[in-house]
């Protein structure tokens, strides 16, 4: 008997996973591969509550934006053009539509917020980093700055 690997093509699976793990997030479904999740993340009681928007876009990398509080100008690991967080380097992780926002992106967003808050206090980014090739630094689709 052959067992097929469970594929997360159905957008309702993305929505169900988010509702199950992060019920504080609201959902705006505009299409099968266009879903926006908006909700609050509390990383630590001493840090501010962060309201984030996560846009699931099928095989395109999810866009994760901080709605509030306002970020400082030029934060680390941030795509300037789209005003979205850089959560991973494409050489280390390849996003595909079958992956779950709830499993990968929300925890990485919480980690980014934690490292950002520490960076604000200490001036050092303690989170994981990947090297960036100089010729790719300008291409938002490939790297963050």
The name CATH uses for the topology is: Ubiquitin Conjugating Enzyme
Give the helices and strands as they follow along the chain: HEEEEEEH
Domains (count)? 1
Query: How can the largest sheet be summarized?
Result: 4 strands, antiparallel
The general outline is globular
End-to-end distance: 48 Å
**Unreliable residue stretches:** 134-139
Task: Give, in spatial order, the strands making up the sheet with the most strands.
Answer: 1-2-3-4
**Overall average residue pLDDT:** 87
CATH architecture: Roll
Beta fraction of the residues?
15-25%
Q: Class by helix and strand content? A: alpha+beta
Explain the overall architecture.
The chain has one domain (11-136): Ubiquitin Conjugating Enzyme, CATH 3.10.110. Helix content is 23%, strand content 24%. By secondary structure, it is an alpha+beta fold. Strands 1-2-3-4 form a 4-stranded antiparallel β-sheet, covered by helices on one side. Strands 5-6 form a two-stranded antiparallel ribbon.
Furnish the topology, listing elements before pairings.
Blueprint: H1 11-21, E1 26-31, E2 34-41, E3 50-57, E4 60-68, E5 78-79, E6 84-85, H2 101-122
Antiparallel strand pairs: 1-2, 2-3, 3-4, 5-6
Question: Which labels suit this protein?
Answer:
145 residues, alpha+beta, Ubiquitin Conjugating Enzyme, 4-stranded antiparallel β-sheet, 2 helices, 23% helix, globular
What can be said about this structure in brief?
With about 140 residues, the protein is α+β, with helices and mostly antiparallel strands. The chain has helices at about 10-20, 100-120; strands at about 25-30, 35-40, 50-55, 60-70, 80, 85.
């Amino acid at each position: 008997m052959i067992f097929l690997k469970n594929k997360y093509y159905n957008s309702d699976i993305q929505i169900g996973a988010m509702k199950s793990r992060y019920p504080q997030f609201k959902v705006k479904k505009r299409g099968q591969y266009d879903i926006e999740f908006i909700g609050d993340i509390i990383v630590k009681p001493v840090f501010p509550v962060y309201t984030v928007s996560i846009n699931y876009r099928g095989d395109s990398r999810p866009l994760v934006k901080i709605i509030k509080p306002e970020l400082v100008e030029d934060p680390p690991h941030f795509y300037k053009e789209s005003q979205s967080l850089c959560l991973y380097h494409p050489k280390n992780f390849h996003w595909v539509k079958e992956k779950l926002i709830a499993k990968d992106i929300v925890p990485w967003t919480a980690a980014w917020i934690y490292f950002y808050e520490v960076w604000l206090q200490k001036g050092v980014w303690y989170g994981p980093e990947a090297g960036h090739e100089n010729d790719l630094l300008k291409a938002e689709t490939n790297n963050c700055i």
